[in-house]
Amino acid sequence: MRPDEIHVKTLQLQIHGGSQPAFASLFRLFYPKLHSFCLQYVHVKEVAEEITNDVFVKLWNRRADLLPIDNLSTYLFVAVKNGALNYLKQYSHIHVAIEDQEGTSGLINRNNPEQELEWKEISFELNQAIEQLPDQCRTVFKLIKEDGFRYKEVAEILGISPRTVETQLFRALKKLQVVANNYLDNNDRQRRKQPPPFSSLLIIPLLSIFF
Fold this sequence. Notes:
Helices cover 70% and strands 0% of the residues. The protein is mostly helical. It has two domains: 3-90, RNA polymerase sigma factor, region 2, helix turn helix motif (Rna Polymerase Sigma Factor, Chain: A), CATH 1.10.1740.10; 113-210, Arc Repressor Mutant, subunit A (Orthogonal Bundle), CATH 1.10.10. The radius of gyration is 20 Å and the shape is elongated.
């Protein structure tokens, strides 16, 4: 069991015993990820907040039933997904505009203004490409790369097979590979006399840093 899983399991036991500080810690740990996940379905910040908050309220009210839950992380994501789907089913006749998501990155500052700008540019391009992925493909990618879930866990959350998860992740990485290559090619054409700052072969390590 990973350290983060042990930590969540400890909080789960404490919440079962009625610990409000433990519940507050769990809320701080999962709320940003769950809210972001919910936004992928409902696309409205306030609605995502309401659905996510409701999941935590129900979790606290049903804390006496927490012990049988094997994986609380998966449980929370499934609960949020179900809440989002129920909302969409109820209000499917209403057109909702998709909000722009600000993409921020924690890339290393190498004390090189020109290279730092290039990192920011390619980060922006990758963020844009991620948001333009098909819904399921984007969701799988974010759950794995941003939230650190395993294939099996993502499959349980989304109700699909691990094989489908693997396929969707491959499609996402393939799309991002194209975006990165296009950026590098355009950048190289503008700087023929200098070596390109990145190698297209480094897209996977780059994504690991990016996320």
